[in-house]
Amino acid sequence: MSIDSGNVSQRGQVDLLDFVDWSGVECLNQSGIHSLSNALKQGYREDDGLNLASDDDEQLLIYIPFSQVIKLHSILIKGPEEEGPKTVKLFANRENMVISDCDILWSNVNGFPRSDIIDLSTDNLKGKPVILKYVKFQNVRFLLISLTVFIQDNQSGSEITKVQKIVLYGITVQTTDMKGLKKIEDH
Predict the structure, then answer these.
(1) How far is it, in rounded angstroms, from Cα 68 to Cα 133?
(2) What is the rounded distance in angstroms from the CA atom of residue 97 to the CA atom of residue 60?
């Protein structure tokens, strides 16, 4: 099911960009000159002339850790009509998928239990967000709070997939900062 981006904010969902832990963001099979930051970072992703492009084939594996616990509601993945993503698999809390040996990973990524699978339509590629199975993304956390996005193929079956914009909508979860707690002295 898809929704308008206007409806996302009406439901209290926000762009989770401010909560991305940029030091851990990774993308396998990205082109050297068309990197993930073109589609994910504020300012770059608004420029239709910039995009993330795959390198050796149509697949991309994107790892996005967060700085705090989130509840993921929907995702917007914008791309060109022919080379835009088609099948997208989402994995919550699978931190070792990108860090693993690439050959093993690419051959076994379909064996990992996914949290959701999306078939993007032309409307989605033009900027219409997709509502996710919300219960699957209630506490997106592991040792690192993370989301892995596997773009399996594109609309035309060509060798290169292009993504112009990725926006993750959701809310943050208030948790106790254990580092901020102080030991109470016995009197």
Answers:
(1) 20
(2) 12
Q: Report pLDDT digits (tens) over 138-170.
A: 665 543 378 889 999 999 999 999 999 999 999
* Alpha-carbon gap, residue 145 to 147, rounded angstroms: 7
Can you tell me the distance from the alpha carbon of 46 to that of 38, in angstroms, rounded to the nearest whole number?
9
Sign for the CA dihedral angle at 51, 167, 17, 57 comes to: negative
Those residues with Cβ within 8 angstroms of residue 81's Cβ, 6 or more apart along the chain or in another chain = 122, 125, 155
Question: What is d(CA 62, CA 25) in angstroms, rounded to the nearest whole number?
Answer: 8
What is the DSSP secondary structure assignment for residue 13, as one 8-state letter? -
CB of 164 closer than 8 Å to CB of 41: no
What single letter denotes the amino acid at residue 55? D
